[in-house]
Amino acid sequence: MNATRCVWILSIIICVARGHVGNDIGQNQKEQDTSADNSTESLSLVTAANREFAFRLYRSLAANPDSQGKNIFFSPVSVSVALAALAVGARGETHRQLFRGLVFNSTWLSQTDVDQAFQSLFEKTKKASNEVTSEGTAVFMDNLFKPQPEFLDTLKKSYFADGFNVDFTKSSESANTINKYVEEKTSGKIDKLVESLDPTTVMYLISYIFFKGKWETPFDPDLTKEDLFMVDEKTKIPVQMMNIEKRFETYRDQMFNTSVLHLPFNSSHSMLLLLPDDMAKLENAISAAHVTK
Ligand SMILES: *[C@@H]1O[C@H](CO)[C@@H](O)[C@H](O)[C@H]1NC(C)=O
Ligand SMILES: *[C@@H]1O[C@H](CO)[C@@H](O)[C@H](O)[C@H]1NC(C)=O
Ligand SMILES: *[C@@H]1O[C@H](CO)[C@@H](O)[C@H](O)[C@H]1NC(C)=O
Ligand SMILES: *[C@@H]1O[C@H](CO)[C@@H](O)[C@H](O)[C@H]1NC(C)=O
């Protein structure tokens, strides 16, 4: 295998019953533009917040009873992007809660700062990567729900988000529209994101990432053979394992008794594999600061 494919998809359903919309979402309010000369600072604040959010989200997913003994697969930055895009249209307490959840400190960051920071992040990652990467956000809105044009403009400009109108009362038709869109954007990898939609849905916000990278040092497919994989301390299962002999960067973290392997892609991206002696200890304590060191 000389390529790894990861498709991360995340969907956030905003299922607001008709009639409850309006107070907090989509109202018109001009944000003061104070950020022209300090966009670099906003960018680093937003990046740091996204990192912190990623580990908080991981901890809360890992602690969830439903994920015990299962794999957790998620793209934290996609969640940050989707919620930050949602915050564009939010006001009042809703906006405060979104910012708090995203670890954005409103003393230092306005929504405009956040929008611009994401815009420059997207522009940077688009330039930097030579893999087949596709990521984006889309908003599907019910025909009866009229968002403010400023909301859609900001989504398009800063979050590169597409906006569509659908009729959610026709739930299989609207599900088809969403599934077709995602199928096209993920090169056919995900063809059924939604099964059926609640007919009272007014807005459906999706965020997708498609990533296909080549290893810097490809694995030889002839060396792939079956071996035993320990799912946990007691369970061993046979799986096909890739094999390679080469020098790679490794690191032994003494604080968490964890071995780290750095597998670079043929680009600026890499995969970090962490093998802890004690999973729970690592899960409870790992933070952005540990990964950057
Ligand atoms: C940007 O500048 C304005 C005005 O000088 C200030 O109020 C705001 O806090 C600054 N934002 C950041 C992220 O530094
Ligand atoms: C935001 O920053 C201010 C000033 O540094 C600090 O006093 C406040 O506690 C911060 N708020 C949060 C929620 O971290
Ligand atoms: C790491 O392993 C060593 C040796 O087995 C042990 O003494 C130490 O307590 C462990 N540290 C942690 C944080 O588990
Ligand atoms: C890595 O990328 C470079 C240029 O981007 C290309 O020439 C090279 O063949 C690639 N190597 C592999 C192993 O794909």
UniProtKB/TrEMBL annotation:
Keyword Transcription: no
Cellular compartment(s): Secreted
Gene Ontology molecular function terms on file: serine-type endopeptidase inhibitor activity
Signal sequence residues: 1-19
Keywords annotated in UniProt: Glycoprotein, Secreted, Signal
Residue span, Serpin domain: 55-293
InterPro entries, A to Z: Serpin_dom, Serpin_fam, Serpin_sf, Serpin_sf_1, Serpin_sf_2
Annotated Gene Ontology cellular component terms: extracellular space
Record bears the keyword Thylakoid: no
Main subcellular location: secreted
Function text: Major thyroid hormone transport protein in serum.
Stated family: Belongs to the serpin family.
Name of the protein: Thyroxine-binding globulin
Species, as recorded: Takifugu flavidus
